[in-house]
């Protein structure tokens, strides 16, 4: 069975305050700021399935090197791992040169009590995935991540449905994503597509490798459109032919396709 998407990462480096304020203004419910034991900070925008993460580094103290070394903007495609050790073994057998599983945590406060959200990740060699970081995440404490109070968004955000990956070698890169996800690469309108449960990876020709567009799903576009049009730094464009829209956030090098679930 193909691996499911766990989450997609937006790297904001040292601009977390600005990024969090922007996404809150756009109507997303952000989880309280988390501080990873590896030296990064984050906010999550949760959904019933895969979620969106803002990640950066703190102003002081330990700073996570792989975040500092990663491109700004959309940069992190994270698949779900039921067991990090088994995932590592499968990826190694398939020649993807994964890193050994890494354990880390971040504190979470629930109803006034402190808990520790714990994870194990397996990262894939960046040279195999030039568009951005690709790794697997095993949630050891999912009940501290998927909380009902974080699943409701004023802009009616529901989840993630598609990512468009620009590539100089679409067929080669699509094959690598397919092997990583234990899925098949198929041709769609001439470009390869890798289909995961409830998510697709479209690999398209581009002048440079990058995660180009992420598609978000909303329960109607009226709320997100109103927020986007009222938010400085956001550019909202409706596509009448598809009934969808594009939300561009140039300050964070982001292009987000928006579609309605109804």
Automatic annotation (TrEMBL):
Gene3D superfamilies: 2,3-Dihydroxybiphenyl 1,2-Dioxygenase, domain 1
Alphabetized Pfam families for the sequence: Glyoxalase_3 (PF13468)
Name under which the protein is recorded: Glyoxalase-like domain-containing protein
Domain Glyoxalase-like as annotated: residue spans: 5-177
Highest taxon of source: Bacteria
């Amino acid at each position: 069975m193909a691996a499911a998407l766990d989450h997609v990462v937006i790297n904001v480096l040292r601009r977390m305050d600005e990024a969090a304020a922007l996404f809150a203004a756009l109507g997303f419910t952000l989880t309280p700021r988390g501080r990873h034991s590896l030296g990064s900070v984050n906010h999550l925008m949760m959904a019933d399935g895969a979620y969106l993460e803002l990640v950066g580094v703190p102003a002081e103290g330990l700073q996570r090197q792989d975040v500092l070394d990663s491109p700004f903007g959309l940069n992190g495609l994270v698949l779900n791992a039921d067991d990090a050790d088994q995932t590592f073994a499968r990826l190694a057998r398939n020649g993807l040169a994964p890193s050994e599983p890494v354990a880390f945590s971040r504190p979470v406060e629930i109803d006034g009590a402190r808990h520790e959200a714990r994870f194990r990740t397996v990262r894939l060699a960046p040279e195999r995935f030039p568009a951005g970081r690709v790794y697997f995440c095993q949630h050891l404490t999912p009940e501290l991540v998927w909380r009902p109070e974080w699943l409701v968004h004023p802009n009616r955000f529901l989840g993630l449905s598609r990512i468009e990956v620009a590539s100089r070698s679409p067929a080669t890169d699509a094959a690598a994503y397919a092997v990583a996800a234990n899925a098949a690469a198929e041709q769609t309108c001439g470009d390869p597509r890798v289909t995961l449960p409830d998510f697709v990876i479209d690999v398209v020709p581009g002048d440079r490798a990058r995660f180009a567009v992420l598609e978000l799903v909303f329960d109607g576009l009226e709320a997100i459109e109103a927020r986007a049009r009222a938010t400085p730094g956001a550019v909202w464009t409706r596509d009448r032919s598809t009934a969808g829209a594009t939300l561009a956030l140039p300050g964070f090098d982001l292009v987000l396709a928006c579609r309605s679930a109804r």
